Amino acid sequence: MINRERICDEFSKQAEIDSPSYKEAAIAAYLEKRFRQLGAVVEFDDCGPKIGSESGNLIARLPGEKPGAPFLISVHMDTVTPAENVEPVLQEGVFTSAGETILGADDKAGIVEAIEAIEVLREQQIPHVPLEIVVTVCEEQGLLGAKQLDFSQFKAKRGIALDTTGVDIVINQAPAANRFKVDIFGHEAHAGVCPEQGISAIEIAGRAIARMQLGRIDHETTANIGTIEGGLASNIVPRQVTLRGEVRSHNGDKLRQQTEQIVQALEEEVARATIEIDGESKHASMSLELTEDFPLMQVTEGAPILQLIRAAGDALGRPQEIRAAGGGSDANIYNGQGIDMVILATGMEKVHTVNEEVKVDDMVKVSELLVEILRRA
Ligand SMILES: [Zn+2]
Q: Can you tell me the distance from the alpha carbon of 377 to that of 371, in angstroms, rounded to the nearest whole number?
């Protein structure tokens, strides 16, 4: 049923089109044509200029013969770098890149599997509900494309993102994340001549960080200060330091509490850093940029979308392993907008490295599972 050769051909074609984030015009043009060939109505949204990408998100709509709400399939067209002149090589059933580039199986394996599944539905005349297929841009840059999607245009209430490593694995939970950037401002002074006239921004940061709980907070919460930058020279009491960090949790309350704990440590240490010079008091200050990076993804074990995938896997004699992930992906954004979306493994391995690979057998398996899911949706 699944056409192995067509998969190899499709994957080679897509892998050969370089598509690093922001430079997706060529792959977008290819996919527009390809989805039209499959009978879809294709359009792009206008997010390109807003996020600095050459392309908007591609939205392909395929009519269905079965009544019912559409089913959503989400993949992304951008890749990480190095992605210049990617040359896919197929050897003993495994695709790798020929040189010092990534392969782009993340997420082209997923795109190819979605295309193959649609080819099979058409060939075998398998009735299915309408499909809404979204190919986002700049996923690798912080889900930039997905964050710009206009969700009022989708009728689907459930779907699948094809975008994780392994095979026969389904991700149903992923944490929400907050990201922050804090500038702490003290006062400059000569460190040898008059240090008592300065307020060290680095000292304030140090004290605040020492009070923070960081790393793995509990089984579902993590926190990190990822960068610290500041100061000018060893003989100057530093006026400014900038911290960047994040908090993630599978629990919304814990995410909030943990973020508050970090902000509070900073605010209290900044408030405490006051000095008196000639009867005049000098204070430190801070400015905080707090962003909700992505919302929670939490599809319950009993949700219809998981029942559907389990049933499809069982029918193929391939029970699906349901698990939680530690990272955020486009699926978080859909879930935040009320669409029950889980992530299906695509067979890609060693992603985000020049050793990235994908087995043809695995792409065949995922396409087969996808056909079975869509037949039952
Ligand atoms: Zn990906």
A: 10
CA of 135 to the centre of ligand 1 (A): 11
Rounded to two decimals, the pTM is 0.89
pLDDT at 59 exceeding the cut of 90: yes
In this predicted structure, the answer to whether residue 327 has a pLDDT above a threshold of 90 is no
Specify the residue for token string 């680095």. 202
Residue 218 annotated to the active site:
no
How far does residue 127's CA lie from ligand 1's centre (Å)? 29
Of the ranges 55-59, 273-277, 282-286, 319-323, which one carries the lowest mean pLDDT score? 273-277
Distance 355 CA to ligand 1 centre (A): 15
- Written as one string, the DSSP assignment of 7-46 is HHHHHHHHHHS--BTT--HHHHHHHHHHHHHTT-EEEE-S
The residue annotated as part of the active site, out of 139, 140, 203, 368, is 139
pLDDT score, position 116: 98
Q: How far is the CA of 107 from the centre of ligand 1 (A)?
A: 5
Backbone angles phi, psi at 242, to 5 degrees: -120, 130
Prior bond of 106 cis (ω within 30°): no
Confidence of residue 44 (pLDDT cuts 50, 70, 90): very high
pLDDT, tens only, 279-319: 999 999 999 999 999 999 999 999 999 999 999 999 999 99
**Three-class SS state of 231:** coil
Radius of gyration of the chain (CA): 25
Q: What are phi and psi of 163, to 5 degrees?
A: -170, 55
Cβ burial 160-199 (10 Å sphere, 16+ → b, else e): bbbbbbbbbbbbbbbbbbbbbebbbbbbbbeeeeeeeebb
Active site residue 9: no
